[in-house]
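Q: What structure does this chain adopt?
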Amino acid sequence: MRLILRSTVFNVLFYLNLLVYFIIAIPTLVMPRMAIIKLAMSWGRTNNWLLRAICGIKVEFRGLEKVPRGALLIASKHQSLWETFALLPLFSDPAFVLKRELQWIPFFGWYAMKARMIAVTRGRGGQTLIDMTDRARAELGRSRQIVIFPEGTRRAPGAEPSYRYGIAHLYSESGIACLPIALNSGLFWPRRSFLRYPGTIVAEILDPIPPGLDKTAFAARLQEAIETASARLLAEGERELASRGIRRL
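A:
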């Protein structure tokens, strides 16, 4: 019962907080682009504070010293809504690859366009890759960090990996190093659930993959790195839940 109550309070405050930031951000539409980026980073930090204060969920980032400066590709495991905001403050000028349909959402879509996020139209085959690569190159030319979820959508913790071709194509065409990120967020903020389980979300930044590998070698190395580390973090999180006597529903 306490879990349900804390989760309900958090979800209400999470969306109220989002609404407040939507209102605060309106002036950024006529300000320099970095204004909305900085505000989005603040939103991410606030959400992590709410998680800790209300749900007892701590957040730990490991390997921050491995983040290079300047233009960069970032490939992150995707288990939860959490990483869509929590990764924002880790980089100086992040640009997320997202579905174009998200730009149709009032406020969110306006701010995503102002921030020059990279919107892609799915289902167009090779044209989708061409459009994504062209946009990514333009943002990399501004020394931005391109954040992409290689599986394209949230996957349940421990689910069979399903990496798509886009990240390998982008890596090959951009000639930029790729930074893998492993995490265990899905244990504590499950997809398609309003429950928030107390514990420690860990996001671990792994060793950068230098440019120059062929697509096949890169894809294999990326998946092996992320999946191996994520499995370790999931086991760590499951032990923590067990030690607290928590059974996930």
